[in-house]
Design a protein that fits this description.
Elements: E1 2-7, H1 19-26, E2 31-36, E3 49-50, E4 60-61, H2 63-74, E5 80-91, H3 94-101, E6 105-110, H4 118-124, E7 127-130, H5 140-151, H6 161-165, E8 184-185, E9 188-189, H7 199-217, H8 219-228, H9 233-250, H10 263-266
Parallel strand pairs: 1-2, 1-6, 5-6, 5-7
Antiparallel strand pairs: 3-4, 8-9
The structure holds S-adenosylmethionine.
């Protein structure tokens, strides 16, 4: 995959060429190139910004250098998406990153100051992407965020394909807690199910922890997840145990469980029998309906 970043501050991008992404570049899995917009300016002093029409504070990036730079880097056979990093854009999600990772080529435009002349956006950008509801001084950090989360999904970049698939958001839930050596640290032990080598138990524990943390921190995400899964007997048992845990932590009676997010979905009688998963404990199996 080839990513070209248009910026007036190309020197800001050194971090993208180190660590995992640096190795992936060396291995030829991704190509990340920064292109300075300034040399494209036809302005006498190679300016890239000017005062806004209508007045107001700050400067606006000129359309001409941007449009010329985009057309130049596109060449004749560009196949991909051109994205302007902007607080007005669609907020980036893991699903968007997966969609972009399937593109052959991306061109990213970093704004600065008050932003970019609208005509440059209209003429040569396909989409606008925001990295969150806050405003940064420039599009360079957002571009790095976008490149990082896309590039790590490109096959081979992470080394182990599993690690990207099982993470927060990919499964529809936040990730369960992770532990490594030693088994005990400052009196805190690694949870028992992770130590006994029983894969079904490990997966069941991981599923319950994922659901628990998602219900607590991102209830709207947990509800979406619970609405999308096939509710088998064994899965319902695991989910019920998570609600029981939440009940006791919140010190509410079982009759009040229905107040908890997503509980109405699980308290249904419409439980399907699944001969495979119901024969043993059912972690977050592959039988989601989504
Ligand atoms: N005046 C603009 C507004 O109110 O929407 C903000 C401009 S901001 C100071 C300068 C540049 O930073 C933008 O052109 C954009 O490229 C980038 N930027 C700032 N916050 C961003 C965000 N949350 N997501 C993506 N890009 C952002």
């Amino acid at each position: 995959m080839k990513i070209t970043i248009l910026t007036t501050f190309p020197e800001m991008f050194a971090p993208l060429h180190t660590s995992i992404l640096g190795r992936a570049e060396k291995a030829g899995l991704i190509e990340i190139r920064e292109v300075d917009i300034r040399p494209y300016s036809k302005n006498k002093h190679h300016n890239t910004d000017d005062a806004p029409f209508g007045g107001g504070a700050g400067m606006v990036m000129l359309a001409q250098p941007i449009v010329d730079a985009v057309r130049d880097v596109m060449g004749e056979h560009f196949e991909g998406k051109r994205i302007y990093l902007s607080p007005r854009g669609k907020t980036l999600t893991q699903a968007d990153a997966e969609k972009y990772a399937a593109e052959k080529e991306l061109i990213l435009l970093c704004g600065h100051y008050e932003g970019v002349d609208q005509r440059a956006i209209d003429l040569c950008m396909d989409e606008e992407v925001s990295i969150g509801d806050y405003v940064l001084t420039g599009g360079e950090l957002p571009a790095m965020v976008l490149v990082d989360c896309i590039a790590r999904l490109v096959p081979g970049v992470l080394g182990c394909g599993e690690s990207a698939r099982n993470e927060s958001f990919s499964s529809g839930l936040l990730e369960y807690p992770q532990y490594t050596r030693p088994r005990e640290f400052e009196g805190r032990c690694v949870p028992e199910p992770l130590l006994n080598g029983n894969h079904r138990e490990i997966e069941a524990w991981q599923f319950q922890e994922s659901l628990y943390i998602t219900l607590k921190r991102r209830p709207e995400m947990a509800i979406r997840y619970l609405q999308g899964i096939k509710l088998t007997k064994s899965r319902k048992k695991l989910i019920d145990a998570v609600y029981t845990r939440l009940n006791s932590e919140m010190d509410i009676g079982p009759e009040e469980t229905e107040q908890l997010p997503g509980a109405d979905r699980v308290q249904t009688d419409n439980v399907q029998s699944d001969p495979v998963t119901d024969s043993a404990s059912d972690p977050d199996g592959a039988d989601t309906e989504r």
